[in-house]
Amino acid sequence: RMSVRITSSLDHLVVYTNSARDFVAIEPVSHVNNAVNMAQGDPERQRRFGVCILQPGESLSASMRIETGPTT
After folding, report:
1. Which of 20, 49, 50, 53 is the most buried (most CB within 10 A)?
2. Does the global pTM surpass 0.85?
3. Do the Cβ atoms of 59 and 52 come closer than 8 Å?
4. Is the CB of residue 44 less than 8 Å from the CB of residue 6?
5. SS3 of 54, please?
6. In the chain, where are the structural domains located?
7. Closest alpha carbon to 12 in 65, 45, 49, 59
């Protein structure tokens, strides 16, 4: 068991585990799962689902910090 504290500039989180393996993958993301398909090109839906469309020359920066430790 472990505890995890995540600080991120991104609003959503994907966590993947595999019972056959001894690992967990933690991935902060800007959008909900399947956001591009659910938004269907609608700007309001894109905003609501966290899709960020970048124009040529634009960039998106994000940071995260993941700390693990024993449970208390």
Report:
1. 49
2. no
3. no
4. no
5. coil
6. 3-61+63-67
7. 49
Beta bridge partners of 5: 67
CA distance 26 to 23: 10
Query: Could you read off the pLDDT of 16-35 as tens digits, one per residue?
Result: 999 898 888 988 888 999 99
Per-residue confidence at 64, pLDDT binned at 50, 70, 90?
Answer: confident
13: tokens are 């989180």
Q: Tokens standing for 51?
A: 């899709």
**Cα→Cα distances 32→24, 40, 66, 70, Å:** 19, 14, 20, 29
Confidence of residue 61 (pLDDT cuts 50, 70, 90): confident
First to last CA, the chain: 10
For residue 54, give the amino acid letter: L
